[in-house]
Structures are given as C-alpha cells and as structure tokens.
Design a protein that fits this description.
314 residues; alpha/beta; 7 strands; 34% helix
C-alpha cells in the first residue's frame, strides 16, 4: 500500500508587496550603499563556499541579488552565465554586474521561479529567502530547476538574529503597555531547514552556523540601519508604530542587559546551507558494517594507516 505524503503547511506570514515597497524605498536613500555592510560580508563568505566546489558552473542563478554583492566576486573560472534575480526592480537597477561573466538581470519573485526544469547548474541566494512565505515550495522549485548533480547554496538569517532587540522591545512594551507586538520577523531554525531540504529531495546536505556581531551607538541607529538594509518588518501581524516612550525604555533595557561603554551589540545569526540534486555519479555513504577500524582505535589511526601502507607495499 502506498503511503500518503503529508501536505505542506504553507504559511502566509509576510506581506510580500510591502517587502517589495520597503526594498525599493532603499534605492532612493542617499548613500544607500552605506547600509550594505552586512550583505557584503555574507556575500564574501558565500563566494568562499562556491569556490569550495571545484568546478565551473555553466549557468548560475542568484535569487535576491540585492545590489550585486556576490557578482562583485565571481570570475569566468567559476561561472559561465549569471542571472541576477530580485523582486525589487529599483534595487535591481542598482545591482553591480560582473565585468567578466555575462550577466542578465531579471525581476523575479522567489516564490515563483520562471526557469525550466533541469536547466541550472547552480542556484545561490544570500539573505533573501527569510522573507519567503512558502519556503518548502521555493526549495522544491529550485530543486526542479537544477540539473542532476546541480547545487543549491544559500545563506539565511537564523532564529537567534537580533535577539537582543527582540527581548528589549518585548520587555519595554510589557512594562509600559501591558503586552507586546510583533516587531522582529520570525526566522527559521537550523533543524527546520535541514528537514525542508531533505523533504524537497536534496542530498549531501550541509548546514553550518555563523554569527556576526555589530556594535551600534543606540537602538535608533540599529533600527535606521535595518530600514536601510530593507530588513524592516513586513509580517502581516506587525505593529504599525512604536511609541517614543517605549523606544526610550527599550534603549535603557538594551543597554543595561547587553551594552557597554562602546554601545549596544546586535547579533546576526547566519545559517549557510548546501544541497545537491541527486545523481548516480555522486559519492554514496559506505554500507553499515563495512568499516575496518573500530571507534575505540581512533587514537591509533595514524599507526594503523602506516601498517596498512606497509602491507600494501610488500
């Protein structure tokens, strides 16, 4: 009897139209590139992961390219043709394009990918997919578009991102207003991402976590930078405004709990994920019971390797 698959629970947490407007507004900020420090840093770390895969990708797509921070670092040794996709058209116009790699700009919503099945060698996304409602659906669409042995490499904000700001705002609102609203958008946990990638059909899945901590003079400067990054809240249940008294109280709480004489820290938890579309040529796990060395002998592994080499050379 065939087992029925459980249907995906598609959430509608984010107002995607509002997010598009928020992103496009950053294009009109004077010196808007000043706010891109975090996305530039993560893009560099993403390029390192692309370079770890020792092959050239003929056709690559970037979802949520922002102002082209990954494109600044790609070369013809890495990629043949590059497609930059961004839902915010004004930001896409500002995106840097590689001087070496032929690049095409496309206005694309990450929830509705226009690419053909089995057409892409590489899909990358840096700090964009945390605003997607149907993340399981997007993962499946990317999987469908990849060729066999194609790879998906992404970076997403993790659940501990901006925990200091979240706690400070909640405590301030609880004290002054008797309850708190949603000011920080919910982020995905690493265990959930692993399950989603597995259910979408990827294999050889790799997940790792990094933290970037940035110091700010105060909570106002932090919130201003988040707005400049296009990372202000777009959850449907977001509270429309914050009272001045609440912000001032949150500033005091933030500084008392986490700050020092140099300002207040903001933690950005970054989850890097890699998933491959299955192919018969990929390495497979060894069968259970095929090991020739016991775990209890791991401290003698170098000696055992030398003895094995001697036996083979006889």
């Amino acid at each position: 009897m065939q087992q029925r698959q459980r249907p995906e629970n598609i959430m509608n947490v984010f107002d995607r139209k509002a997010k598009q407007i928020q992103k496009n507004r950053t294009a009109f900020i004077k010196d808007c590139y000043v706010y891109d420090y975090l996305k530039e840093e993560v893009a560099v770390r993403m390029v390192d992961r692309i370079c770890d895969v020792k092959r050239k990708f003929n056709i690559a797509v970037e979802l949520g390219c922002w102002r082209g921070h990954i494109a600044r670092h790609i070369t013809t040794d890495m990629i043949g043709t590059y497609y930059q996709c961004e839902m915010a058209d004004k930001v896409l116009e500002q995106a840097y394009t590689s001087e070496e790699v032929p690049t095409y700009k496309l206005q694309v919503d990450e929830e509705f990918l226009p690419f053909k099945e089995n057409s892409l060698d590489l899909v990358v996304s840096s700090l964009s997919l945390h605003w997607v409602n149907d993340l399981p659906g997007t993962f499946k669409q990317i999987h469908r578009c990849l060729k066999n042995d194609g790879v998906f490499i992404a970076a997403m904000f993790g659940g501990d991102t901006l925990f200091e700001l979240r706690v400070s705002l909640q405590l301030a609102e609880e004290e002054l207003e008797g309850g708190f609203g949603v000011h920080i958008s919910p982020f995905t946990e690493v265990r959930d991402l692993g399950n989603l990638l597995n259910r979408a059909g990827y294999n050889l899945i790799t997940l790792d976590i990094d933290e970037i901590q940035v110091k700010y003079p105060g909570i106002i400067e932090l919130m201003k930078d988040l707005k400049g990054m296009g990372e202000n809240n777009c959850a449907w249940k977001r509270k429309p405004m914050l009272r001045r008294k609440t912000i001032a109280k949150a500033q005091d709480i933030y500084k008392e709990m986490y700050g020092d004489e140099n300002g207040i820290p903001a933690t950005y938890q970054i989850i890097y994920l890699i998933g491959w579309k299955p192919d018969p040529t990929q390495a497979k796990s060894a069968q259970r019971g095929s090991a020739t060395v016991s775990i209890k002998d791991l401290d003698k592994i170098n000696q055992l390797i030398k003895e094995k080499d001697k036996d083979e050379n006889k």
